[in-house]
Amino acid sequence: MRRLFFALCPNDTIRAQLVHAASKIECGEGRRIAAANLHVTLLFIGNVEDASAGRLQTAADRVLGDRFELHFDRLGRWRRSGIAWLAPAAIPSGLSDLVEQLHRHIHAAGFALETRAYRPHVTICRCLPNAPPPSGEVDIRWRVDEFALLESVIIPSTVRYEVIRRWPLAASGRAALGR
Predict the structure, then answer these.
(1) What are the C-alpha distances in Å from 97 to residues 21, 58, 159?
(2) Superfamily of 2-173 according to CATH
(3) In a designed cystine with 40, which of 8, 71, 76, 173 is the match (CB 3.0 to 4.6 A)?
């Protein structure tokens, strides 16, 4: 079994900006997310048999998404889960369309998916029950030009996310022509 999900993976420049913004968030006794693991989840799949992983990739081949800009301008914390995050105040239509297409094609390939509302974010820290809410300003503009299928690999005392495959997004407007 493999634990799989689709995500946006930052390049080194954006990753450095995310790490800098994250350094301003007080995590208290929490656990910071390793810089190499920073990402925006698009669609969580969960445990998948090795034999079924190819179906995910074939389904993702059908996605025709356009490049878009993702503007991180909010810091926050979900009190119940204890997760501190960076997020966009507005979800760009390119991101909404990408998530909707992934959901539709992956579901059609026979995978059961979560139905909760999509909230794009980068998790910065976990386990923050007593930490103060994040404050400050963030302004990160990320030109997203691909998405990826990742595997969550458990290694002693932590987890590492490994890219299985990447899919490019088209220059604006080209994906709509291919539908």
Answers:
(1) 27, 18, 29
(2) Cyclic phosphodiesterase (3.90.1140.10)
(3) 8
